[in-house]
Amino acid sequence: MLRQGLRGWRWLLVEGHRPPALQQNIFDGYVATLRNLHPGASSNELSTAATRWVAPLEAAGHVAGAAIDLTACTRDGAEVDMGCPEAATPEESEGACYTKAEGLPERAQRNRAVMGEALSAVDMVNYPTEWWHWSYGDRYWALCTGAAFAPYGPCDLPRGSVR
Fold first, then answer.
1. Topology of domain 4-145, CATH
2. Is the dihedral of CA 111, 115, 121, 127 positive or negative?
3. pTM, whole model, 2 decimals?
4. Which of 121, 126, 147, 156 is in the most buried spot, having the most CB atoms within 10 Å?
5. Nearest to 129, CA basis, from 91, 76, 73
6. 53-65 as b/e, with b when 16 or more CB fall inside 10 Å?
7. Within 10 Å of residue 40's Cβ, how many Cβ atoms?
8. Is 89 within 8 Å of 30 (Cβ atoms)?
């Protein structure tokens, strides 16, 4: 049973499936941003750091259509306070993007807990460095749930599809 806090909320889907090329561009762009912030870091260190915010192509749930980025809003469309904007990087949010970030206002902590309870109740799993990222059926989901395999893998939309 969901907590009282969910009443009046609506889910606001920000992003679902991403074509593989877009996933790779997002990853490469964030690695470039990190390279500018940490010019002495090795390529391996930069790639590892980038996974806090975006998955590499070979592990990404979005390219499988099995991951979504979402937040919640009220009936009138106002976004619910989650402590930082959806899609904020660790640098932009000073770590507030992490699902269990410390130092968040009590309301944001409570809202994240309600969101987590609702989505976990339907067997979705959260990527803990992004409070907004939830998946079902991708490789990360399989790892977290102990499933023998991930039922969904990378796919690209057919030519001419709406993106």
1. Muramoyl-pentapeptide Carboxypeptidase; domain 2 (3.30.1380)
2. negative
3. 0.89
4. 126
5. 91
6. bbbebeebbbbbb
7. 6
8. yes
Residue 158 has pLDDT above 90, yes or no: no
Rounded CA-CA distance 4/114 in Å is 9
Three-state DSSP state, 6: helix
For residue 161, name the pLDDT band (cuts at 50, 70, 90): low
Q: Render pLDDT for 71-103 as a digit per residue (tens, 0 to 9).
A: 999 999 999 999 999 999 999 999 999 999 999
| Residues whose CB falls within 8 Å of the CB of residue 50, separated by 6 or more in sequence, listed in order | 27, 30, 31, 34, 56
Domain boundaries defined on the chain? 4-145
Other CB atoms within 10 Å distance of the CB of residue 49: 18
Rounded Cα–Cα distance for residues 21 and 7 (Å): 38
